[in-house]
Design brief:
alpha/beta
Amino acid sequence: MRKVWGVLLLTLLLMTACHEQQKERGMYYWSTVFRMDSAKQTFLKEHQINRLYVRYFDVVVDEQDRVMPNATISFKDSIPQGVEVIPTVFIVNDCMKHDISDLAEKLLRRIIQMNETHHIGKVHEIQIDCDWTPSTRKTFFHFMETLRTLAKGHDIRLSSTIRLHQLSQQAPPADCGVLMMYNTGDFTKLSCERPILDMRDVRPYLPALKKYSLPLSAAYPLYRWRIVFRNGRYVGILHTDDELPILPGDSIVIRQPELEEILKAKQAVTQQNARANNEVILFDLNNTNISRFKKEDYEKIFND
């Protein structure tokens, strides 16, 4: 009987360990309004996507030099049945240069309140996205340690995004991480033709993936940018047609990852750490992104 209980306990632990061993399919939802129209619902069902990393809000430094929430999501539709939500918070790195002694407590409380208000229900994981640097690492790691302890009191795991340049550094104190396989180049330079994903930029970082101490999932890009250049100089990203004044002679260039490059990136991750592709996450869920490729192409990304 003891042997049976031991097997059951081990199975349970493996099932709850940040999905390290399970094959999962996830999407980021990175908009300020949560709408789940028929196109999005169909995409989730067709590709059996069972996890949504929903950006709840940002944390920024405001004009009064205070660390404050910003761009909070508004839920207009319900979460699709059978889909797990992972509340995700983007924290601007400059926040780590201010007093954030109470940020972990406030952040967790706000997430829990939002879940209750919008009938999200019990969540099992929250994720922090912050492009911390060596100069802010100590502050960020202390914040994560505090948040992880508080979250554990609510039976919530803590995950962290991991950028490529962070792979060679100490892993943050989290239960697991998501490796961001995008934003690899300088999009402000006209000469940079693949700023979202270019394997020439990615490859130098990947050897560190073999010995990285944190269990990882991997996220790959679907999005594109329309970038305005004037006389060869960066003006801005054009999210809507009338967002920026377009002058005669301005150039609008399209930057987007192609299917072949995404598949190469996934294969390169597998070669260094196959378990990182046990959960494949795509960035991000909106109608433009999910209509870029054919159904079988998305399946290649998830399966190959």
